[in-house]
Amino acid sequence: MLISILLALAAPTAAQNLRATLITPGAPSVTVTPALTVTAPRLTVAPLALPAASLTPTLPAPAIVAVVAAQAAPAPLASFVQTQAAAQPALQALSVPNPSASGAHAAGVSLEDALTGRKSIGAVFAAPVGPVNGIGRSEPAVSGVSYAKDISARQRARLDESLRRRKAGWYRGLSRMGITLAGPESPKLKVVKAETLSSKGLAAVVVAEAFTVEWSQGRTRGGSFRVTVPAKDPEPEFRRLADPAVPDAAQVVVRFKTGAADADIRAFLESQGLRVISRGYDGTWLAGVTGRAKPAAAAKRLLSDPLVLSAAAKLAAFAEADQALIAFRAGADETALADALKRHKLTVLERTRDGLWRVGTPQGRADKVRAALETEAAVLYARTLKADFPESRQAIVTLRTKDEDALRAFLRHHGLTVLDVLGERTFRVAGTISEDAGVESVVAVGSLPDAAVDAAAAGAASYKGRPWSATEYNLNWALGYGSLARLGASAAQLARYERLTAEAPVRGGGFNPWSGD
Predict the structure, then answer these.
(1) CA distances from 328 to 172, 253, 282, 381, 386 (A)
(2) How far apart (Å, rounded) are the C-alpha atoms in residues 234 and 135?
(3) All domains of the chain in start order, with CATH
């Protein structure tokens, strides 16, 4: 039986005719007839016709034989059901008012393939998406964008058009802003400000729309950016803005063990409900708590993780009498260091420029904690922050070696407290020193004559002004100050040195900015 289809597709600008013919013995005839007033085709099914038996074989026309030989003839009823099911998507696509030329062509090819059983290239077509009207052709790159009340309808429509027509540009720009579109939580965008950019001149012409957007993704991630949508092309242009400020009262200072990757640290902090603020030059991380969480409680929770070395609220406050300074041994095991801090309930407040750890101790237990720390294998020495020792009991000690074991044994043997580090082998200590073979020299603090102080001040003042630069003066001033401290100058003598150099006149009317460069 011969099945013929004549398909007339009406489009706003052009008409297309498609004719498909299939020979299937014993199959019903299927005719697609377009209505006169509706562009959707209508499917009519003729009654089933049974094949007639004949003793005399007959051959079809050569052209028909070629088609029949290419495919096996299915059962009549099964062939009809399969053909009808295969043609339904194409018929639904053609039922849309005013289909596009490319869509109508694809639907026609698909309908022909359904009736002939072929697989044509390009027969895959999209489901109906409604009328083509500019911005209604697809979904936006990000859904659920909210706007401030003062954003006009025209500006909203412009941004919505860019979100729909330039999705690839939005995907790239949002990724650069730090937004993860493929994550478990969808980002939320809020347009807080819109600005119309016009050209300068007598006839001002709108050249672009600029939008300030605040975004959030979950509890821990957020920020803001500025996106500009040109008037001639809705391709967006992104620029990151400063993140919203987090108050100091909601910040936590965290130190991680060596070897932890930045990506792992960020993922860990976010998993703990903390928002990463910055990474310090000394390896510290600033993170902000979210919701109603307290920084102290968040820091205590972080300390239970083996990745964390120390954690404390940024505004953790301890009285000077409840603070201590700790010098850990170089290369000390970080796990042992962290265990010592936890065992004695210490809160790390700062790492000084000298490499000392300033910690807060439980109230009223600073002296006991200091004594207990001296028994820790990872600790070189420790002292309370407010250590009042008279200068008559202070001395400048220079050891014969800079070995840490020798220093630790020397301090424990004599019961000394290190007050300051003046060099690799020189220390200002408090206590009573007896004869020791490991000591190279001992100078009592306050034994330096004032004449030596005046001479050092005059030498530093000679670099104050031309032909010397300010850098050279500061260098020589620091060298003179350090030399006096190692020679046993008292606190009053060091203050005298500072006063004399400050009162010295500047030579030549000022420093030479080009000297020493």
Answers:
(1) 47, 20, 16, 7, 19
(2) 11
(3) 2-48+61-116 (no CATH), 136-240 (3.10.450), 249-393 (3.30.70.1140), 450-503 (no CATH)
Task: Determine the Cα angle at 491 with ends 490 and 497, to 5°.
Answer: 90
| Residues 27-74 pLDDT 10s | 444 444 444 444 444 444 444 444 444 444 444 444 444 444 444 444
Burial class (CB in 10 A: 0-12, 13-18, 19+), 334: middle
Strand partners, 279: 285
- Distance in angstroms (rounded) separating the CA atoms of residues 358 and 328: 11
Q: Which residues contact 248 (CB under 8 A, 6 or more apart)?
A: 314, 315
pTM strictly above 0.85: no
Count of other CB atoms within 10 angstroms of residue 489: 26
Cβ-based neighbour number of residue 345 at 10 Å? 12
C-alpha angle 328-398-463 in degrees, rounded to nearest 5? 100
Which parts of 222-271 fold into alpha helices (H)? 262-271
How many Cα atoms occupy the beta-carbon half-sphere of 92 within 13 Å? 11
Structure tokens at 31: 């005719």
Per-residue pLDDT tens digits for 494-513: 999 999 999 999 988 788 77
Closest CA to 247 of 281, 289, 278: 289
Distance separating alpha carbons of residues 60 and 51, to the nearest angstrom: 15
Distance CA 270, CA 273 (A): 5
| Structure-block tokens of residue 23 | 């020979």
Cα–Cα distance, 111 to 117 (Å, whole number)? 10
Q: Is the preceding omega at residue 41 within 30 degrees of 0, hence cis?
A: no
